[in-house]
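All the exercises in this workshop are built on plain-text protein records. A record pairs a protein's sequence with a compact description of its fold. The structure tokens are whole numbers drawn from a learned vocabulary of backbone shapes. Once this layout is familiar, the rest of the handout is easier to follow. An example says more than a description, so a record of this kind follows.
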Amino acid sequence: MVKIQPDEISSIIQEQILNYNKEIKIENIGTVFQVGDGIARIYGLNEVMAGELLEFADGTIGIALNLESKNIGAVMMGQGTNVQEGSVVRATGRIAQIPVGKKFLGRIVDALARPIDGQGEIESQETRLLESPAPGIIARKSVFESLETGLVAIDSMIPIGRGQRELIIGDRQTGKTAIAVDTILNQTGKSVYCIYVAIGQKASSIAQVVSTLKKQGAMDYTIIVAATADTPATLQYLAPYTGATLAEYFMYNGQHTLVIYDDLSKQAQAYREMSLLLRRPPGREAFPGDVFYLHSRLLERAAKLNDEMGGGSMTALPIVETQEGDVSAYIPTNVISITDGQIFLSADIFNSGIRPAINVGISVSRVGSAAQSKAMKKVAGQLKLELAQFAELEAFSQFSSDLDQTTQNQLARGQRLRELLKQPQASPLSLSEQVATIYAGTNGYIDNIPVEQVRSYLVGLRQFIAGSEYSKILEKTKILDEQTIDLLKQCLENYSKQFVEFVVS
């Protein structure tokens, strides 16, 4: 029997220690002690961070939200039916993040940016945090470029600029989504990438939006983030942040983006559901105390960056649903105070046949004419003034039977201007068409046309000016100078003569 000397044993041990390269892996592990309604209470996980992603034994992903002294409260991003008391939970060491990139354009993804359109995986080399900080004041620039919606009523009276946050608010079924979709359609060829976030909607409604965008070729520059009504509250809460994160990729690369959150009322409800299940103290209308922060940290990410940062922009159009036109409710007032103006859609106006049903009296843009092209600025002032006077006169004339001729003329023009603001769905207008429409209304070209024929006059006018010298110059320069006005007047006079002859015959 060979005897091993003690010094040999120590040299073997030393050699093994020196050659040991395997990294020691320390895992942060916890145990589920209570589970239900998509919420898990976990014992352990002492090193976990707020907002960190957790992995449950069955593969379900969760987010750590409540960090308490003896346990943590986590929300699960799935049904979590196989998660039981005693299940093991691992901390991933990663704060919630998603892949981003140009490959997402034309695709439909869920609230974690996973494709759900059946067109295969999306390749991406880059990721961004779901909750990244908003750009600071120094990194921003004041809003000055126009983001045209293609809707006469908005572009002339409630203009939206690139980097602005403009709330679309109104009762259900008043055309809020229609305005958002029209705005996306109008970005064709304008180098603006669009992200449409559908929160808590029926899958059939989202499919309808997708088919409208596909029909007009708008899906090429659009990403759809869908968190349908049957998805867990966690995903409905996260969906808007996913939309903002996908948009930030383009913004920080010096490009322009438009994000539509449809709608934030549903996100607030999903957050309330999560918070109550996590046993956070309820406040007004049972919403948690930080529901304002929920929306402010989302909407503050919209910005127009300065030239050093690349000059990109993110424009946000959040949508909020009201009950019976009550804009003084909790969530509507919160979002109104965060945004730079609101477009208020009225059920009464909608039911009276005016579409889009914009209440010009309550609607406002706090960026104003800074976000308008020079051509639109020149014609819009007159339109606003005449419509305001018409609203006053119309209210006054209800109590008076005999009106003088001037008042009658003003009322007649006001009725025609109101017709001018009506627009069918999914048919946004170019700048030259809008300017010609407003100019015709405010300069008497439609004064002698019967009210019921104003719409057909305007449709014909737009076809008449298509491809004209006036349209080419205005689309190129965006300025309404003397030469362009002369060309426009010539078009209007020639067309009006044709229209009158056609009507008479």
The two ends are 125 Å apart (CA to CA). The mean pLDDT is 92. Residues 374-397 form the longest helix (24 residues).
